From TrEMBL:
Keyword Ubl conjugation: no
Family from the record: Belongs to the major facilitator superfamily. Folate-biopterin transporter (TC 2.A.71) family.
Organism: Rubroshorea leprosula
UniProt xrefs under CDD domains: MFS_FBT
Pfam family, one: BT1
Membrane topology: Multi-pass membrane protein
Keywords assigned: Membrane, Transmembrane, Transmembrane helix, Transport
Domain of life: Eukaryota
Name assigned to this protein: Folate-biopterin transporter 3
Membrane-spanning ranges: 47-69, 123-140, 146-167, 188-210, 216-234, 272-293, 305-324, 336-358, 404-427, 439-461
């Protein structure tokens, strides 16, 4: 009887064990699926849902989706409508991003000049309205001169930049109050931007083919309209009885505080590294774009194919955010930047394989090789960019967080403008035109080598734990008149006191 009992009990034991294993597997997969939702819920509870929604709209829809649509449409607009050369297009697209260089001005305004008692909400509304008007003007005007087209594109870029400054100020303020969530907030920004870019790039080629570049500009008025909605919905504590007569004084105080912070050794050194890292990575995107679409011995990609290539790049960017969030966010800045800078330089050589047509000799089709190239390059670029963002938020003192973060970002954009104009100059020197691409491979080699140079400058980056504050305690608070603004007592209104 004992033997029979053992034989009968054994299957029941196995069934129970298998059931436990199945339940644990089901629980694991369910937890994996629900993990992003729990993460969003945590951020919404800690930081308020309107802030999370603002990040999704500004980064995901206005910048991600909007820039995804506008990049392809602007490239085709410059090439087919305005008939400009690759080097000229490289310079003009750099000019379009000049509003991002003057971000400290927008930051000073949002930090020191409330409108109707609010410091962030009115600027979201103004930014959205400015972008809507500029995109509609581009879409509706026929045979627009290059100067006016450039002016409208700059105005649209300014609208996106102003909204970016306003949401960056909110992110930086929350970083000061919740330093342990700094990486999570930047991951939220990066995820929103990457997902939006994926959708935008996926649709861009189809829309350019269907309605043309000017038609896409008209569609871009809708993301800008959502920024206006965010300006109406964002929770913000109003500044009561604000003394507008003291605006000049507040401008001076904020400027002095920003300059004093920038002179701090722990601040200017990483800022210098970020500038040099971006400036030395020469941009030759327009040369590659013209080669993709116009070179007789090139792939001759269609508009839909170009959009799909960029959409795969957005997936690579998204993977970079996920990789940073789950594996790298707690690693020291220097360690991450060393490997990403090295891989950034090596990944640039993939373009060399393509332009020299080595991929065809190896039996790899152009499209397959290009999408792999784009995905890998964007993933490495995103992993490289994420520590910059986290580091930048930790360099901002309370009270002028919008101004100072905008200042750091403007330094970064000066670096990108430098790389864009230097890349355009390089294409011009090498005589890369709409029909001549013989020397494009030389530009690729020079660009790839320069990308590795910043490794020798990593001593400028602090060794500190990315989860800890970097600035000295006396710099983390900003003095204003006879009052000191404490981060703990501030809710999106740190520099403006009730007077």
């Amino acid at each position: 009887m004992e033997e029979v009992g053992e034989n009968e009990a054994t299957p029941l034991h196995f069934n129970a064990e298998n059931q436990v294993r199945r339940n644990s597997k089901d629980g694991f997969f369910l937890g994996l699926i629900l993990r992003p939702f729990h993460w969003f819920k945590l951020l919404a509870e800690q930081l308020h849902w309107s802030f999370v929604l603002g990040v999704v709209v500004v980064y995901g829809i206005s910048q991600g989706l909007g820039v995804g649509l506008s990049r392809v449409s602007t490239q085709y607009y410059m090439k087919d409508e305005q008939k400009v050369q690759p080097s000229q297009a490289q310079v003009l697209i750099g000019i379009i991003h000049i509003p991002w260089i003057v971000k400290p001005l927008w930051g000073l305004l949002t930090d020191t000049v409330p409108v109707l008692g609010y410091r962030r909400r009115p600027y979201f509304i103004f930014a959205g309205v400015l972008s809507v008007i500029s995109m509609l003007m581009l879409s509706l005007h026929r045979n627009l001169r290059l100067a006016f087209a450039l002016l409208y594109l700059i105005a649209g870029s300014a609208g996106i930049a102003i909204a970016d400054v306003a949401i960056d100020a909110c992110v930086t303020q929350h970083t000061i109050n919740h330093p342990s969530l700094a990486g999570d907030m930047q991951s939220l920004c990066g995820l929103s931007s990457s997902i939006g870019a994926f959708v935008g790039f996926s649709l861009s080629g189809f829309f350019v083919h269907l309605v043309g570049p000017k038609g896409v500009f008209g569609l871009l008025s809708f993301p800008a309209g959502l920024v206006v909605v965010i300006g109406m919905m964002l929770r913000e504590s109003p500044a009561r009885n604000f003394a507008y007569r003291k605006v000049k004084e507040k401008f001076v105080d904020a400027s002095k505080a920003a300059w004093a912070t920038l002179k701090c050794r722990d601040v200017w050194r990483p800022c210098l590294y970020m500038y040099l890292s971006l400036a030395l990575g020469l941009h030759i995107h327009e040369g590659m774009f013209y080669w993709y679409t116009d070179a007789k011995n090139g792939p001759l990609f269609s508009q839909e194919v170009v959009g799909s290539i960029f959409s795969i790049g957005a997936i690579g960017s998204l993977l970079g955010v996920v990789l940073y969030q789950n594996l790298l966010k707690n690693h020291p800045f220097r360690e991450i930047l060393f490997w990403t800078q090295l891989l950034h330089g090596l990944s640039g050589l993939l373009d060399l394989i393509l332009v020299l047509r080595i991929n065809l000799k190896l039996g790899v089709p152009d499209y397959f090789f290009v999408v792999i190239d784009e995905a890998v390059s964007r993933m490495i670029g995103r992993v490289k960019w994420m520590p910059f963002l986290v580091l930048s938020t930790k360099l901002c003192p309370a009270g002028i967080e919008g101004t100072f973060f905008a200042l750091i970002m403007s330094i970064d954009h000066v670096g990108m403008l430098t790389s864009s104009w230097a890349g355009g100059l390089l294409l011009h020197i090498l005589k890369v035109t709409r029909t001549q691409f013989d020397n494009l491979w030389i530009a690729i080699v020079i660009r790839s080598l320069l990308r590795i140079v910043p490794i020798g400058l990593l001593f400028l980056i602090p060794r500190s734990d990315p989860n800890l504050s970097i600035l000295p305690s006396e710099v983390l608070r900003t003095k204003k008149g006879d009052n000191i603004v404490e981060p703990e007592n501030v809710e999106m209104a740190s520099l403006v006191n009730s007077i």
